[in-house]
Amino acid sequence: MTFYGNTRIDYWQSLEQSALRLAFQESRKRHTLSRGDRELPKGRFRHDLLAVNSFSRRIWGRAVSNELSRFFCDGGYGTTHNRDVYFVSLMDITCARSPDDRLSEADLELIKNRLRYGLRGFSYFGMVEPAYYVNLQHGVRYNGKRCLFWHLHALVWGVTRKVLKKRLRKLVKAGHYAAIADGLDATHTRKIKQGRLPRYSAYILKSPCKTYRVSVLDRQDKRGRPITNADGVVLQRFKQGKSNLRHCDRIVLFHAMKHLHLDKLAVAGGDGARLLKSAKRLALKINDLPVPAKRTNSFRVVVEGRRTKLYGPKAAWRRLAPTSRMRL
Prior knowledge:
Strand content: 15-25%
Distance between the termini: 49 Å
Radius of gyration: 25 Å
Oligomer: single chain
Helix content: 40-55%
Order of helices and strands: HHHHEHEEHEHEEHHEHHHH
Shape: globular
Largest sheet: 7 strands, mixed
Structural class: alpha+beta
């Protein structure tokens, strides 16, 4: 089993591919899909590295996995890695957008720069993706019922956990990172245990598969009694929940990401910049191959010429196969 095989990206993307196909057929929002939209998830667009194409996700996942295996596991399968690696998630409310907004290239760069600011000076590789919040209560930091909360998942190395957490804690305190609601974490750091690097790599490279909800609950003490302030008002807290994407949610995410490319959603710094450059070269290598000459058209021209010489132009037309007539 290779590093890429241990990520199980093939399996997860096959599930996502089937779910998206079903959403195209049964969603109440399927009328918003154009003929061109329905073509984008197909295999012939896999080398464009589209964020909504499961075949592209596999190509990109394999390229990144090969580089991660070479860099961290000496070409191994990911059962062990040769240095401390941390899984980091970074979120900021300024990166929340309406589901109807189409990210421009400039806006995407703004989001990427905002999120990776706390990792400057470190070595890292990560991907930006949206979390789809379908139900937001009054009191959250976003003005609206639904939003796409763009955030960053990254692998970070070359730094101690203490230094990393201290810097992120300062940035949260300074307001650079802020969760969508009070009480939720704006940053998350976890040291990756031996044997789990493929698992976290797959999480970074995955396509969005969950929706999120923020609900309001009354605060309670250890005995279950409500906590009140000096005026007797019961204090409240926010709680986040998640569930699988519904058909209509998949259509919303599809429209939001159909123009985005996986290599453009990636961010890297330090030694991770070389890793990203190599992964891009591997993933895009197929596009550099020369286009083979089409023999079918030449063959058809020769056959038509012979038939015209023998039977005349009208007879040659009648003797052509129906499929050949459609190509003329």
